[in-house]
Amino acid sequence: MGLIDTHTHLDSFARDGELAATLDRAMAQGVDAMISIGTDADDWSQYAELARTHPKRIYYTVGLHPCSVADDWPDRIGQMESFWKRSPPPVALGETGLDRFHLPKGDAEGARKLFENQQAAFSASLVLAKFLGCPVVVHSRGAFRECVEMIDASGFDWKKVVFHCFSEGPDEVRELNRRGGRASFTGIITYKTAETVRAAAVEQGLDRLMFETDAPYLAPAPHRGKPNQPAWVRHTAEYCAPLFSVTYDELARITTQNARAFFGIDGE
């Protein structure tokens, strides 16, 4: 069974005229499908069209990344629901969440206001996702506790929550798992300094494990420092198979089944 890259950003590949080659490289490495993750209104329609023209290979989400949040965030979130009337509809809402890392430095008031806007946009996104009954892809950077508390307060179904690009440790993944949520893992897990991330993946276990590239970011070893691509999710899976004492084929089968079940993606 082939792999699914559960979190990638295809806009840069399409913009550079590299999409066809990127898809071919992914297929050659046994990556059968990928989910292109929405971050702002300017990529949602593009991803919807890619999903329409590449059925069963490209799926997409619609979401407002916390680093895309501005004062007009209600207008953009107000545009999201219409995408669930399209064919095909998104497979999740996201990415959405909170990001302290990219808040302005040296401007405490500006940072406070921006973070408040992020919280308001995240809250509104959870309300919409609850109404739609769809999964949510959470971006959490420097704000794990706040994200968890907001999801708790929202009453959103934790079984439909994935914290993408998980870079916390075992304690935090236990927090997600005991609520019913899960973490997905990028090429960070292959880095020498990522012992806590590997420990978190093992703590979570195989039943909820999913892989992603977050391409064009966070290329796994041995390509660290280069622009990432969906084909390289295979490196991450191959690296992780010994961590779980299974073969690569078994890990691919399990993680692909997990991804299809979580996102509601039909098999081939």
Give your account of this protein's structure:
This protein has 268 residues and is α/β, with parallel strands linked by helices. The protein contains ten helices and seven strands. It has helices at residues 11-15, 19-28, 41-53, 73-78, 108-132, 144-154, 170-179, 195-204, 233-240, 248-263, and strands at 3-8, 31-36, 58-62, 92-99, 136-141, 161-163, 182-183. Strands 1-2-3-4-5-6-7 form a seven-stranded parallel β-sheet. Strand 6 (161-163), helix 7 and strand 7 (182-183) form a beta-alpha-beta unit. Helix 7 (170-179) packs parallel to helix 8 (195-204). The protein is globular and about 50 Å long. The chain starts with a strand and ends in a 5-residue tail after the last helix. The model has no long low-confidence stretch (mean pLDDT 97).
Topology of this protein?
Blueprint: E1 3-8, H1 11-15, H2 19-28, E2 31-36, H3 41-53, E3 58-62, H4 73-78, E4 92-99, H5 108-132, E5 136-141, H6 144-154, E6 161-163, H7 170-179, E7 182-183, H8 195-204, H9 233-240, H10 248-263
Parallel strand pairs: 1-2, 2-3, 3-4, 4-5, 5-6, 6-7
Principal-axis shape: globular
Q: Over all CA atoms, what is the radius of gyration? A: 17 Å
Order of helices and strands: EHHEHEHEHEHEHEHHH
Q: What is the first-to-last residue Cα distance?
A: 10 Å
Residue stretches low in confidence (pLDDT < 50, at least 5 long) are none
Quaternary status:
single chain
Mean pLDDT, as a whole number?
A: 97
Strand order of the largest sheet: 1-2-3-4-5-6-7
Task: Supply the key terms.
7 strands; 10 helices; alpha/beta; 268 residues
